[in-house]
Amino acid sequence: MKTTTMLLCLITMLLIASAYSDEQAGMRIGMAHRDTLSPKPTPFHRIEDIMGMDQKRHGLISQKIKSKKGGAKMSLGSGFDFGAAQYFSEIMVGTPAKKFRVVVDTGSELTWVNCRFHGQGKETREVFRAEESSSFRKVGCKTKTCTDDLSRLFSLAICPTPRTPCSYDYRYADGSVAQGVFAKETFTVGLTNGSVATIRGLLIGCSSYSNGGGFRQADGVLGLAFSDYSFTSKATNIFGGKFSYCLVDHTSNKNISNYLIFGSVPSSTTTSPARLTAQLDLNVLPPFYAINIVGISIGDTMLNIPPQVWDVNKSGGTILDSGSSLTFLADVAYKAVVSGLERHLVGVKRVKPEGLPIEYCYDTSKFDEKKLPQLSFHFKGGTRFAPYRRSYLIDAEPGVRCLGFVSAGTPATNVIGNIMQQNHLWEFDLVASTLSFSPSTCL
Fold it and tell me: DSSP alpha helices (H): ranges in 327-411?
């Protein structure tokens, strides 16, 4: 019975459709190639027009795809509770993914973790066991990648057999060292839209040995320098040519954090003050993020600092570095800054905390920091970065604060460290070569 009913319904629907098609004319819309609407385009201009339109379309498609993916979002907090002057993030490495706490370093090209490979490597707080990851692929020592491409990352010439992994002895400016083998691995990252994604084939260092104060309580380093082999290169290629971070106060506890984001900053994380923009010089001091500082002022007074201090061609220049804590200035600039600030600290008792490599420290238990004038860094083009006073009169211990500057010698590259950057949102646009920033609580 049911089958008969269904057949009757189907026959009725077909009859109705047939009657409808007989009574109604179909809709017809004319189509013509866009070139027929133009007055006799030449072959050259036709191809030029096609290329222009297609490139714009491809750009819009790429933007939509990337916006659907969302940006990569990683936690970022101070290492204060761990006795470290660095900022830490957490990364998920391997298959299955394992979590590691790493130093966030815009001055380092290599991302590495403490690692055991074929039994080599020391047991630390956390260690990556390479053989347990199905996505771990060592880089061979006979490959062009090892012998040529990774030479600037201190790849070694040791190669007893073609199957031997490509080894490295990675050296940092402060004398720290990491030694191990290069590999390609998969990273798992959270996205700003709440989902997760994997980044495959990312260069990683499997470090069997590391030594340096900067690595204290960390499992490795997240290399964010401007380099073809850094984490930044791979992540910005996937999520768009920008990355940003907001550094919480350097004395914050570990439960207070913000984010390192690859891709555009979500509107919910932007701050109310208008963001300022300056040029980012990506090719003058590679792989560092060079900025074009032209002077420093205290209050309304521009300090008398020779122009060559800021000139890369005269062994000067300035970089922004999340891996350095204090701010390093060429000696003549250092002397101008500390003497300029010291004039406003007359009557405040100067002290010398034991083991602290900072020259100017004071007993500020009864000192109002508002008495200290505003220090500002001036960019070429007129943009001005005015850090909070607690970023250059920094807490050293209870009741003691120090001027957070160190002489870098002469000549020297100036380095704006992470304490000076704290409580600001920084966005690096690697496509437009711009640096944007604005004050933020980073909470």
Answer: 331-342
Beta bridge partners of 297: 302, 376
424: exposed, middle or buried (Cβ count in 10 Å: 0-12, 13-18, 19+): buried
Does residue 300 carry a catalytic annotation? Answer: no
Domain range summary for the chain, segments of one domain joined by +: 69-260, 270-439
pLDDT of 24 strictly over 50: no
pLDDT tens, residue by residue, 272-322: 568 999 999 999 999 999 999 999 999 999 999 999 999 999 999 999 999
Residues 6+ apart with CB under 8 A from 314: 308, 411
The CATH code of the domain at 69-260 is: 2.40.70.10
pTM: 0.82
The one catalytic residue among 219, 249, 321, 429: 321
For residues 102 and 108, is the Cβ–Cβ distance under 8 A?
Answer: no
Residue 122 half-sphere exposure toward CB, CA atoms < 13 A: 8
Categorise residue 121: left if φ over 0, alpha if ψ from -120 to 50, beta otherwise.
left
Q: Which of 6-15, 150-159, 237-246 has the lowest mean pLDDT?
A: 6-15
Are the CB atoms for 220 and 280 separated by under 8 Å?
A: no
Pairing of strands 350-351, 361-363: antiparallel
Query: Does the active-site annotation cover 331?
Result: no
Domain 69-260 identical in fold to domain 270-439: yes
Q: Is it the case that residue 100 has pLDDT exceeding 50?
A: yes
Q: How many CB atoms lie within 10 A of CB 85?
A: 18
Residues 237 and 302: their CA atoms lie apart, in Å, by: 40
First to last CA, the chain: 69
Tokens standing for 18? 């047939």
Fold of 270-439: Cathepsin D, subunit A; domain 1 (2.40.70)
Q: Which of the following is catalytic: 105, 219, 281, 429?
A: 105
